[in-house]
Predict the structure.
Amino acid sequence: MPPLGALEWAVLGLVLLRWSSKDGKQSPALWVPVIWLFIISSKLPSQWLGLNPMSLTTAFEEGSNLDRIIYLSLIVACLCILSTRRLNWGELLARNSALLWLLLFALVSVIWSDFTYVAFKRWFRDLGLYLMILVVLTDSRPEIAISTVIRRSLSIVLFLSLILIKYYTYIGISYDRYTGAPEYLGATTSKNVLGGVCLISGLFFFWDILSRWPQRKTPGAKRVLFANIVLFALTVRLLSMSNSATSKACLVIGCVVIALLRSQWARAKPRRIAAAIPAVLAAYAVLEVVFDLSTVVAEFLGRDPTLHGRTGIWDTVLRFQTSPLLGMGYESFWMGDRLVAVARSLNGAYLNEAHNGYLETYLNLGVVGVALLVLFMISSYRTVFRRFTVSPNFGSLGVAFWVVMVFYNFTEAAFGGSLLWCALLLLVLVVPRPNELSAREMHRVDKTKIATALNDPRARRPIAEPAVSRGSKRNVDTARVRL
């Protein structure tokens, strides 16, 4: 029987989730992406049941049959849902061409991978993530659907992590084998993953608190605000326990961006903000390359100047990259003998990521993959700022996630199937509405109307003025003189 305290926290989580779901009745189909987000933000189903293979190399390469069955079931469910919705696939691919080229190159890279079958299975699994995103964005109310999916999945992970850390420490806490120091995992697989979940949760609930604050005196908004404040406090608590420096810094940056974009000055001058953000990022990149800014800041704050061994990891993995142009193939670098060799070079530390999203992309997809990734980030930046000019409230969240994604990937790898990548795509993908004509179709319609008008003899006749009386004619002339 679960401890009484665990049941109390579970009930509190359900009550807060119920209070915060005040946006009307939601489609049951949204539970499919909620399940997917819960899986990628916590442990895999096989890990919950203790069915993972004993060997780490086997786990990285083969995976679990149970996980594959669950992923395949969710993909089939997404396809069934999308088949009932009027989605213009041609226009969808045309409007998101930068992401399409990145996915296609990732698929082609399977050919030169040392583990072709495994790489293709991973690409197909990640394809399900994009189908899941389409289920959310093709909802009749996409903005509310995005908020609902993020809120449900994050609330479940947060409260489950708290319960595991407090009452099931053998699951929620691990201990360093050398120092014995505790590492708080919660429902996730590592402290950095827990920090990433808290980062997204903190940004979302901070944004939602600011959005609902003007309506704080209404009865319905009071409950939602109370739930948001409790969840934000729980997020800060878990983030402090995870001790993820990257997530802490990015949460501060993201909250500052949201607060700035919600100001009257930013709404009045969106072009200046749109130009200022890339300028700041470019200046940071120059300072990082020339003066090694991250090391200087770490020493100033009393942190490890090697970023907890990340600089050594980066130098090591670069020595094993033998295909700089095209990479080792999609999700193929951390497999086989190469994984064992990297572990030996790092004194037996087994890794499955480079702790740098740009370097991780370079290892798997080479220079071409990094170029396509940069192209997508530029395209998505234009998209989020176009939405900010139309809807400043919801658009501010998209801009904040974009900025956080850029900074977060300097010391963590989040491009691909991570929760942060999924949250960004929910806010930057362009999905045409069913009653919306594409630009090509609009051009074709305009040409048809012009051709019809030219071929119609009646279109060349002068339009007769309506007959008016003499008094009315005098009134019209007087009005023209006044104008």
Observations:
- The two ends are 84 Å apart (CA to CA).
- Residues 357-390 form the longest helix (34 residues).
- Confidence is low (pLDDT under 50) at residues 437-443, 458-483.
- The chain has 23 helices and two strands.
